[in-house]
């Protein structure tokens, strides 16, 4: 058996000294790697520098930092190897910084808009065109100056990396992850079912940050047919995922 | 002798799963702690969870995450203890996320501006008032939705924490740090001298990210009178700082 696990959280550079980081200790990924670890399983493990890592030395570690690295690494691994399952637990940045404006720069942009759209209103197409122009401004600053009382960051949405997985290996068993914050079970379940459809996932592990701690970790492993099992610790969740993959890979 | 060292980089929350982080491995802080470490010196060491830490167990570790924590911790330490020197090497976030807007929300804001300022232009006071209104919007989202092609983050400037130090302990020897990216020596020197004046620092360790690596680390320890010494590794920089403090504390 060969499996691919992603864990930890990506960071996207704002400038040479600052990043936007998605938090993830990497502990759940470690629990999953430990659950699968035996002599007959090859594990490729994609994670970040700052995340906790499995201690077994014959797991193949691949370190990435941002969504671009992650995407390139997954493309390379998925085109070189056949995986029985891909467990994509990494917290991936939804957005990447495109450009930043100081108060002075924002004032110039707003006054240009006031002049160009005199007496009219903007529609969404206008707004998107204006944003595109701003994004094309050359980024000249390596470290953003702090000489402004406010800084305006424009972030653009990243491509959904999870969708790469089934595009490159339609036959693999894909386990995706969905983390929401302080929602009802119904909302969590609905969002997870949508994620299964959008990303062609076989399973989604759905969890709520308010129920995630060092010792407890409430997670629902939801299958394509809507059925689910419940784990209350990282170890239980890891075992649920392993059992589901072993069963599915025998079909 | 009792000294206070700060090291690592602060993180500021955007929402419950994302932060803006200032990078800093914490290795220079470790080198400084090691240089000072002996039986007669008490070291309070303020750093973050993710930074490297000194291995000597009788250094007093104080963990912080954001600039608010840092400020509270420094206030408490500086009001409880007398420090012969404070070495503030931590990379502190200049800005904190105040609010975020989706494309839809930005469109609404811009059309309100177009209506209110018809035929006129905005000045800086108008802009600051408009920003203040946006900042006062209640933040309802615990995890920002990714259902927008662009996200607009408004960041507000943090108070300068380094200025706390001499306000609370005018007699302490303060070593500040200035990291720029890819500038000339003259620019680095000028910015460092300004920082000495603004923050009442006794010394500034000025360095340029393009000359900072695992093994090499070019740094200039600049004194109030404009004289400076040069170190080429973290250990050399740490020894320069120690020597300067020992000399200054004998005066």
TrEMBL record, chains A, B:
GO biological-process terms attached to the record: coenzyme A biosynthetic process
Segments forming domain DNA/pantothenate metabolism flavoprotein C-terminal: 2-100, 139-246
InterPro entries: CoaB-like_sf, CoaB_strep, DNA/pantothenate-metab_flavo_C
Highest rank taxon of the organism: Bacteria
GO MF: catalytic activity
One Pfam family here: DFP
Name listed for the protein in its UniProt record: DNA/pantothenate metabolism flavoprotein
Native source organism of the sequence: Enterococcus canintestini
Taxon lineage: Bacteria, Bacillati, Bacillota, Bacilli, Lactobacillales
